[in-house]
Amino acid sequence: MLAFGVPLVPTTLAYWIFASSDRLVIGKLSTLDELGLYTVAITASSLLGLVNGALGQAWSPYAIKIYEEQPNESPALFGMVLTYIMVGFGLLCVFITTFAHEVLMVLSTPTFYPAAIAMGPLTLGFMAYASTQVTAIGISITKKTNYFASFSWMAAVMNLILNILLVPKWGMIAASWTTAASYTFLTIAYFMTSQRLFPVVYEKWRVLAVVGLTFGFVLLVPFLPEMTLITCLVVKIMYCLIYVSFLFVLRILDKREWQMLTSLLSKRNAVSDEGDKQVCSETQNSFTTRIS
């Protein structure tokens, strides 16, 4: 138990460092205006952090259960789950980034509206962070938690160095991108190590496609034209719908996902609380069928 748990203490400290060092560096090497804007951007995009925290609480014990009960099917199941995590967080990234200005209109005053430009990179960072729920699964299953401590400290040091080098010139924009880079490094390091410890069968095309698509749509948001409020909302809704349509055009999602979701919802509505266990079992079987 100590061998498993002790490395998680420096890991938590490292996460705290590269989650807060950007604001400390901005406060020291940039302006207080930049610090204020960046803090608002982090607050506005923190919804992704809440979703990721809830996902971790639900997914971790379930992943261990699947590994113990279906060791042969679990590698493919884990890979499929990563695809769905990427799709879900991709949708949130594009939606939050697209409507960042409107979100700030509700949460703050006009002084802080420029913070919207930093929300895109921050949401991409949260997306990369969410992927560690699966990319780190091999480390957790094999109880090699010392890798968590090593890689998280590497990410913390990298984040701190990049912030010191880039923040004085580019301010909060640099801080937001260094945060995204740190989480990206973290998930890649976890992935490479986990694959040696417990190989997962990833859906490579779907994962890479949704990551590239999300990255492109987030980068293009600042280039949307400025219009009246109503027109702007219509254009932005269409922009998000175009993103969703590309998920199907590129076959990142297809009719199998709709069939699985429809089946799950219909069964949920048809059964009582006593029958919920049977529905969960059938849903798990549908995952296995999808894998095969």
UniProtKB/TrEMBL annotation:
Keyword annotations: Cell membrane, Membrane, Transmembrane, Transmembrane helix
Membrane-spanning intervals of the chain: 35-55, 76-100, 112-135, 147-166, 172-193, 205-222, 228-250
Membrane association type: Multi-pass membrane protein
Keyword Transmembrane (UniProt): yes
Gene Ontology CC terms: plasma membrane
Localization per Swiss-Prot or TrEMBL: Cell membrane
Keyword Cytoplasm: no
Protein name: Membrane protein
Organism: Candidatus Scalindua japonica
